[in-house]
Amino acid sequence: MDAYNITVVGGAGIVGREFLKLLETRKTPVKRLRLLATARSAGKVVEFRGEKITVEETSEASFSPADDVVFLSASGSASKQYAPIAQRNGSFVIDDSSAYRMDPAVPLVIPEVNADDLSWHQGIVSQPNCTTTPMVLALAPIHRVNPLRRIVVSTYQAVAGAGSAAVDGLRTETEAALAGRHEPSGTQKREIAFNAVPQIDVFDEGGYTKEEIKMANETRKILHAPDIAISATCVRIPTFFGHAMNVWAEFERPVTPAEARELIAAARGVRLIDDPAKESYPTPMDVAGTDDVLVGRLRGDSSLPGGITLWTVTDSIRKGAATNVVQVIEEAARRGLIRR
Fold first, then answer.
1. pLDDT in tens, 141-189
2. Contact 314, 134 (CB under 8 A)
3. Residue 234 designated active-site
4. Among 123, 110, 129, 114, which residue's Cα sits nearest to residue 69?
5. How confident is the model at residue 11, as a pLDDT?
6. What is the pLDDT, as a whole number, of residue 201?
């Protein structure tokens, strides 16, 4: 892989910081690294490979044709403002917001599932939602040989998915609650300590939240399967890292748990931890700081003969965000899709 000039928008955020760690641990070649952020974070100093890098305030003048790769880990409005500028400069842009996910001209990519979609990028590649990625990775091995017909999913999402402020909010709320006080941090729709909040993002007219709608639409796009029926319920719970979910899946043909296990166990990016006799199954604590999607509790759906249900956990900041971005860069480089 060539060494690239990489610019990160949101370099001071929770995903941006994890992205830098991954560049280090994966020994990704980097020619020059620039970190951009809001005025509030500008001036912070981050160390990368022995070099101190000062975070700069993002503006339209921040981008130049010298940027080989631009990673946007900020708001959707920031992505809409800055991604086209970097695209016009000829940069390879990866966007972590929802701004371009459903744009038909922009690939939405999980490298283990649909890397071939990178071939038709026009300068911008989109990153899936941190709940979509693990569900698709778990189901794609079966879908390849037996297409999905219907998915019902309930998620149990860690506060890290809402950013550093939400992590701090859970910590302060928990300390207050243990002292007998209720002090909502304002980082979630309701007080999150010792609670479960069945709302992530805003509701639409049909009663689903944007987070739930994202899971459905993104899954169909990634799998090139527009007719899959999908219903999601997304819940925020008081864990720091590690999104969990339970998935019920129906396929065109009946599938047995043994068939599903064999297919999932052979897939890249997925690890099966499933031994009921030994009470072996993955939890959010098991997945923090790792890159695999862990799958357990795989069994037949007792309400639908031929269907299956399974439990998955993933680190939303790693494979749900930063790891997937690094893998997109690596795959695009391997295919010669980033300019030299």
1. 999 999 999 999 999 999 998 888 999 999 999 999 999 999 999 999 9
2. yes
3. no
4. 123
5. 87
6. 94
pTM of this structure: 0.94
**How many CB atoms within 10 Å of residue 62?**
17
Question: What is the longest distance spanned by two Cα atoms in the chain?
Answer: 60
Catalytic residue among 121, 143, 234, 243: 243
- CA torsion angle for 80, 93, 110, 160 (degrees, to 10)? -60
Residue 316 · residue 242 · CB < 8 Å:
yes
Average pLDDT over residues 198-217: 96
For range 317-331, the mean pLDDT: 96
Please give the C-alpha separations between residue 104 and each of 77, 90, 99, 108, 304, in angstroms, as whole numbers: 19, 20, 12, 9, 34
Are 236 and 194 spatial neighbours (Cβ–Cβ below 8 Å)? no
Phi first, then psi: give them for residue 303, nearest 5 degrees: -95, -10
Active site residue 130: yes
Give me the catalytic one of 121, 130, 143, 234. Answer: 130
Instruction: Label residue 184 exposed, middle or buried (CB < 10 Å: 0-12, 13-18, 19+).
Output: middle
In angstroms, rounded to a whole number, what is the distance separating the alpha carbons of residues 185 and 246? 28
Is it the case that residue 340 has pLDDT exceeding 70? Answer: no
**pLDDT tens column, 215-229:** 999 999 999 999 999
Burial letters 45-58, b for 16+ CB under 10 A, else e:
ebeeeeeebebbeb
Q: Are 12 and 47 in contact (CB under 8 A)?
A: no
Provide the b/e sequence for 169-180 (b: ≥16 CB within 10 Å): bbeebeebbeee
